[in-house]
Amino acid sequence: MWVVGAASGFLLAMSVWLLVTGRRPPGILGRGLTSRDDQRMHRAPPIYFRAMGAMVASAALDGFFLVWTIGSMRQPSPLTLVIIVVGISLLTVPTGASVAWLIYLSARYRLFRWDKP
């Protein structure tokens, strides 16, 4: 549970970086897996990194909700189930929208792996 909380905190910090700067992170976190991936990251516009920041922020919120749910509701009950269903339903909308936006921008700027650099 603490690992998920720490990972969510790290994701939240990375999302703030991506949203504020609109650039890839410095160091090893900003590199691609291959040299072609690295070329794609150089070509990517700031809006792509802001979209990625929105997706990472929604993943961090999902992780924090998971930690809160597991940590505070140890006894299963019908109320717990209702809270989990409502929380997941509310978090699905921004997560899905941010993923769709990132896919759209990747296609628009030809940043997928199968697109030539």
Helix-strand blueprint:
Layout: H1 2-21, H2 35-43, H3 46-72, H4 78-108
Notes on the structure:
By secondary structure, the chain is mainly alpha-helical. It has one domain. The chain has four helices and no strands. The protein has helices spanning 2-21, 35-43, 46-72, 78-108. It is elongated and about 55 Å long. The chain starts with a helix and ends in a 9-residue tail after the last helix. 18% of the residues are buried. The model has no long low-confidence stretch (mean pLDDT 88).
How would you describe this structure in keywords?
mainly alpha; 117 residues
How many separate structural domains? 1
Mean pLDDT: 88
Query: What radius of gyration results from the CA coordinates?
Result: 17 Å
Give the ordered list of helices and strands.
HHHH
Oligomer: single chain
Largest sheet: none
Q: What is the helical fraction, as a range of percent?
A: over 70%
Number of strands: 0
User: Are there runs of 5+ residues with pLDDT below 50, and where?
Assistant: none
Question: How would you summarize what this structure contains?
Answer:
The chain has 117 residues and is mainly alpha-helical.
